[in-house]
Hints:
It is found in: Early endosome. 3% of the residues lie in helices and 51% in strands. The protein is mainly beta.
Amino acid sequence: KRKVIFFAEFIICYCILVNTSLTWWCLRTIRIWLKRDSGQYWPSIYHTMPDSCSCMSFNPETRRLSMGMENGTISEFILSEDYNKMTPAQTYQAHQGRVTVVLFVLEMEWVLSTGQDKNFTWHCSESGTQLGLYRTTAWVSGLQFDVETRHAFVGDYSGQVTILKLELDSCSLVTTFKGHTGNVTALCWDPVQRVLFSGSADHSIIMWDIGGGKGTAIELQGHNEKVQGLCYAPHTRQLISCSSDGGIVIWNMDVTRQETPEWLDSDSCQKCEQPFFWNFKQMWDSKKIGLRQHHCRKCGQAVCGKCSAKRSTIPLMGFEFEVRVCDSCHESITDEDRAPTATFHDSKHSIVYMHYEPTMGWLLTSGADKVVKLWDMTPVVS
């Protein structure tokens, strides 16, 4: 795998390779690629780390590069103005196991990190001292931070998202919410609209309305494999998502979307009243064989297969692919309701990481095929 951060004039990447015997070994290298006058990117720095790199964060204002490693250590470097030299700045003994996410917050001078030891920590970037620690219930796989409210958003392998209020030396639990059936694989925070996007191994994306105060959760279904990355373009109100099947989806979030209904419970079809197969009493009384239960994705009613034989897209509810709907809902869905709110693109490789640079409108993807691709997104993100 290669994870990469991209900016207008340079690319930073670190490499992890797997050999043919399926035992992990690592090049332990950080590479910086500078954009030359020819328009091509050429390597500028090739730095070897003491252990395998697992995650990284870069702040372009301070040129501070934070690298998380497999041994639980976070190493920080300051890049020179010409990006031809990196100087060690700080080392944090942050975790007992692999660092999963590292995030540098310039406004607070904090380094936030999570690890396989299920600890979420934050350190002072000036002194290197640990300021606080919070124990999570599962291995954390996603982390975002809101500077204005000092809220940390933590997504873990149980599918739960936890919101913490951070202080200088302590934190308090604000709330937890869970909408995914798989582990959280990506988080993206929009501080303007105050919404949080979470992607999961269950192929879905959920938009959580944090600032609205109503607890609204909007589902987006547009991937066939686990979601690997999320980026938000605030100037156009578009969400960019990618998955391990190579799909890149551009979501129009400047539309009024609807929440998906909760699935209703019933012992019989809520349309034709035929009993479901566990409703022995009604089966005996009516002398009929029980049917399998399904649910209409538009109204949430429990229906049988005969009453929900039709399929339709419902883009405003996040269903860009055809899903099961009952007969009455299928008749109520117009051609205007079926108008897509997302565009689909094939990256031609299994994406493991992506980074979007909004000032240039460029997207960088790295794949399991060890290839890094740079995309001009201006024709579709505009």
